[in-house]
Amino acid sequence: MGILQIVIVLAVLVALVKPVGNYVYHVFSNEPNRQDRIFGPFERLIYFLIGLKSRAGMTWKKYALSFLLTNIVLVAVGYVILRVQQYLPLNPNGIGNMEQTLSFNTIISFITNTNLQDYSGETGLSYFSQMVVIMMMMFTSAATGFSVAIAFVRGITSKGETIGNFFEDFVKAHTRIFLPASVLVTLLLVALQVPQTLDPTLTVTTLEGAVQSIAIGPVAALESIKHIGTNGGGFFGVNSAHPFENPSPLTNVIEILSMWALPASLPYVYGRFAKNRKQGWVIFSAMMTLFLLFLSLIHFSELRGNPAINAMGIDASQGSMEGKEVRFGIPQSTLFTAVTTAATTGTVNNMHDTLTPLGGLGALGEMMLNVVFGGKGVGLINMLMYAILGVFLCGLMVGRTPEFLGRKIEPREMKLIAVAILAHPFLILVPTAIAFMTDLGRGAITNPGAHGISQVLYQYVSSAANNGSGFEGLADNTPFWNISTGLVMLFGRYIFMIAMLAVAGSLVRKQWVPETVGTFRTDNKLFYGILIGTVLIIGALTFLPAIVLGPIAEHLKLG
Amino acid sequence: MLDLYMVLMLAGTFALFYGFLAWCSRVVDETGGDRK
């Protein structure tokens, strides 16, 4: 029955890929279509208000600068609001200003689509901050990632000098994708008992006569964009495990599909831009294969239970239910964990810190690879980066200049791709080592031994992959963790995006090479295998020593 | 004072990204290859 639940959700997801992909393609293809009649007038008003007179295409450099400057302005405004929130309206619970290093961490966390939360929403943020900073950035960070992904796809599939107009892409991502989808999912969630109110925290008397405070607020609106934008930051500290965020198995499935449908449809969008849908399906198949691999690891590890607890004679027939919600059980919890770390959303409906060692390894692995569907846009760019690397390696093996989609891959592209690939493990392993070497880092570990290593490793993996979930046993609301994870999130997001836009800018200007019988094809089963192999080999070479010290050592100790 | 440090750190990091963008630009414009 558990497996059947998972299979049904997977089937619905696969059925959504083509219609959602077609819709997204029409949003960004810039060809006249039926959507223009609905959204055109609204968008033209926005262009007028922001003073966008020309929607001409931009070079990769102008595109990168535009998204960087837009993000800088959003960071500045958001930081100020968090620091003065107690003086602003919509603060019925009288919440004070956020501390400086926590504001630094929070603002970076949301602008980078990470949503790592070192605070608890119901006690750390006013309603104004929740809506104007947190929810606003959930839209803008997702739209930024989506725009950059589309620009990258244009760069590798078209010719000319330009890769689109950032401001036009950014506005369209909001008006045609994230806003309509969020309204729809918000209404669905409200209908399924998720609260949406500006009333202050409720104070009630329980049946036993005790007085209890029950936090409420504009939960449904945040919950929808939290998942649709693969953001992951919850209204409440316990995120989607909270019954007001995720009251039933049905809302659980809606949240899973909300965070999964857009990243899963992007390979299809890429196939349409490349005018060869098989290219897209090869990428999708590679992502899905890796996903099923990690889902199986997580699911069967949790189903098997914790050997140490099983040995105590406690009923283990339901699997390892420690830290999980009874209303979801193992299948709905493990699927949620696999999807949230694959799509780098970071929303959680169970306590990841209490996953079995191999279950935790599955979650870690998906974020380390960062290509298993991935977050808004960046997962596709990452996978295409590995595709170019795979083509390059095959070219070296047969002594032929590698070509990808009719363009030669040369040292300059490989230099940029090497920087982007190496930045990810560097941003994880170096800060992890520093944390272990300093009292400030070690002081946060609440579970000494191999699991403590996993706690620290998970925090930096989650930050670098812009995921945002955590092994929350780590006592991480300190200046050391706020600043170090903040910097890792920033570098993990922007270094990669800038480098890949540069690759797109380099490829878009190149002459097309006519296809011959000797051309290495990238739309068949052989390339599907090469792509998965490339991802797994690079991942193992960079992360295997770290995971041996953490989750694997812990698993072996458990017996 | 701590606010100033945080703002400087943010500004410095974004300045680094601008520097990285400039480096990428130099790499992309390297001579050689089959540029038109």
What does this 3D model show about the protein?
The complex is a heterodimer of chains A (559) and B (36). With 559 residues, chain A is an all-alpha fold. Chain A is built from 19 helices and 4 strands. Chain A has helices spanning 2-28, 35-49, 60-83, 100-111, 121-124, 127-157, 166-191, 219-228, 249-273, 277-304, 307-310, 329-342, 357-369, 378-398, 411-437, 439-442, 450-464, 479-508, 525-558, and strands spanning 202-205, 211-214, 403-404, 407-408. The model of chain A has no long low-confidence stretch (mean pLDDT 92). Chain B has 36 residues and is mainly α. Chain B has one domain. Chain B is 75% helix and 0% strand. The longest helix of chain B has 27 residues, at 2-28. The chains are: A mainly alpha (559), B mainly alpha (36). The A-B interface holds A 60-61, 64-65, 68, 72, 75, 79, 83, 100-101, 103-104, 108, 408, 410-412, 415-416, 483, 487, 490-491, 494-495, 498-499, 502, 505-506, 509-511, 513 and B 2-3, 5-7, 9-10, 13-14, 17-18, 20-21, 24-25, 27-28, 30, 32-36.
The radius of gyration of chain A is 23 Å
Q: What string gives the helices and strands of chain A in order?
A: HHHHHHHEEHHHHHHHEEHHHHH
How many runs of DSSP E, i.e. beta strands of chain B?
Answer: 0
Biggest β-sheet strands, sense, barrel of chain B: none
Unreliable stretches covering 5 or more consecutive residues of chain B: 32-36
Number of domains of chain B: 1
The ordered H/E elements of chain B are: H
Oligomer: heterodimer
Protein name (chain B): DUF2681 domain-containing protein
Transmembrane segments (chain B): 6-28
Organism (chain B): Cohnella silvisoli
Keywords (chain B): Membrane, Transmembrane, Transmembrane helix
